[in-house]
Amino acid sequence: MLGSKYARVTVKDRTLAGAVYYLVSGHGGPDPGAIGHYGKHPLAEDEYAYDVTIRLARVLMEHGATVYMIVRDPNDGIRDEPILKLDRDELTYPSQKIPLSQVKRLRQGVDAINKLHRKYKGAYQRMVTIHVDSRSEGQNIDVFFYHHENSKSGKRLATHIHKSFQSGYRRSQPNRTYLGTVSDRSALYVVKNTHPPTVFIELGNIRNAKDQQRFLLANNRQALANWIYTGLQTAYKTR
Predict the structure, then answer these.
(1) What is the chain's pLDDT, residue by residue, as a tens digit (239 residues)?
(2) How much is the pTM?
(3) Residue 72's beta-bridge partner residues?
(4) Distance of alpha carbon 61 from its chain centroid, rounded?
(5) CB 3.0 to 4.6 Å from 215: which of 48, 90, 97, 229, for a disulfide?
(6) Three-class secondary structure of residue 164 per DSSP
(7) Selection from 29, 192, 26 nearest residue 114 by Cα
(8) How far from 49 is each of 18, 62, 72, 117, 239, CA to CA, in Å?
(9) What CATH number matches the domain at 18-237, 3.40.50.300, 3.40.630.40, 3.80.10.10, 1.10.3210.10?
C-alpha cells in the first residue's frame, strides 16, 4: 500500500500504541474532486489528498498506532514526483468499488469506519479526512479544520492540529502570517455521521499558483503530514 520505496516501516517508538486512526482522503474512484492546472498538467484533488494521507499513515505507524486507510489505491503508494497522475482505481476499505453517486460514496466510507469503530469499542479512536479546496485562481488560502459542533473531542483534535500548523509555519516561514481557522461544519456528511471524533481538513486551493506549491513538492506534502501527526500526537498524549 505504501509503495516499494516506502514499504518498510520501522517503528521508532510506541508513543501512539493503543490509538486507532481512520484516514480518509477526499473523493477517489470515479470522482477526482477539485481539478487545478499546472501548465498543461491537470492536478486532481484526490491524488494530492491521497499522497498526504498515506504519508500521514506511515508516520502514525512509525509511532505504534493502528491505522486504516479507508480510501485505498492498489497501485499508488507514496509518490515523490510533483505531477501525480490521475487515475480512477481507488477502492473503499477493505476492497469495495467506489460508486459515482456522492451520497453512496460518502455512506460507503462512513459505514466502513463505523463497522471498525464497533470492533475497537473502548479504544481511543479518531478519524481524519483530508481534502483540497477549489476556489478562484487568485485566492490563496491557508489550511482549515472543521469538526462537529457537539463533539468536544473533535474540536480538541482540530485545535491541536491547528496549533501544530501555526508552530510549523512560524519555524519554516517566520515572516508569513498563518490565517487558518478551526470551526464547526456539522452539516458535512462524514462529520455528521462518523462515530469516532472527526477532523475535516482543507489543505488549500488547488487552483491557486501559490497554494499549488504546497502540493507539488513532495517535501511540502510530507511537511503537511508531519504537522498533522504532531497535532494528533499531542491530542493523544494530553487526553
Answers:
(1) 899 999 999 999 999 999 999 999 999 999 999 999 999 999 999 999 999 999 999 999 999 999 999 999 999 999 999 999 999 999 999 999 999 999 999 999 999 999 999 999 999 999 999 999 988 777 888 999 999 999 999 999 999 999 999 999 999 999 888 889 999 999 999 999 999 999 999 999 999 999 999 999 999 999 999 999 999 999 999 99
(2) 0.97
(3) 91
(4) 15
(5) 48
(6) helix
(7) 192
(8) 26, 20, 12, 23, 27
(9) 3.40.630.40
Strand 35-38 relative to strand 71-72: parallel, antiparallel, unpaired? unpaired
Map out the domains of the chain as residue ranges: 18-237
Three-state DSSP class for residue 115 = helix
Round to whole Å and give the CA distance between 187 and 189: 6
Question: 34 with 133: CB under 8 angstroms?
Answer: yes
C-alpha cell recorded at residue 19:
490509538
User: Which residues does residue 200 pair with via DSSP β-bridges, in sequence order?
Assistant: 129, 146
Q: Report d(CA 127, CA 20) in Å as an integer.
A: 9
Q: Which letter, b or e, does each residue of 51-74 get, where b requires 16 or more Cβ atoms within 10 Å of its Cβ?
A: bbbbbbbbbbbbbebbbbbbbbbe
Q: In Å, how far are 50, 133, 206, 225 from 36, measured between CA atoms? A: 16, 10, 5, 21
